[in-house]
Design brief:
0% strand, single chain, 4 helices, mainly alpha, 107 residues
């Protein structure tokens, strides 16, 4: 919502908070598959709201690893079955953007 009203930084902070909360839940119960899929969603949302391509790559890489693990044990629903391909596609695009970004030298 904040991105829609011109506050992209606000949306990023909301996604960071959601990610921190979801990480805490997964840490409390790592076998909870619902919380793991929620973590994937939080990572994906973070990747959509950041302008930092390296951060986007990191979030999507983590999301894909979780999805692979969930797929291996057969817990992705029919609706979620396409998530790994979606994340892979966005990850390739993010990697291309990251490769184009020129790091700013430290002064």
């Amino acid at each position: 919502v904040r991105m829609q009203v011109g506050e992209p930084g606000g949306a990023l902070s909301v996604h960071e908070e959601a990610l921190a909360t979801t990480r805490a839940l997964v840490a409390r119960d790592p076998d909870n598959k619902q919380w793991q899929t929620d973590l994937v969603g939080s990572l994906f949302n973070l990747s959509l709201s950041t302008s930092n391509a390296q951060r986007e790559v990191s979030a999507l890489t983590e999301a894909l690893a979780i999805l692979k693990s969930l797929a291996e044990v057969g817990v992705l629903s029919a609706e979620q079955a396409g998530w790994p391909d979606l994340v892979r596609t966005r990850l390739r695009a993010a990697e291309a953007r990251a490769a184009e970004q020129v790091p700013v030298p430290a002064e």
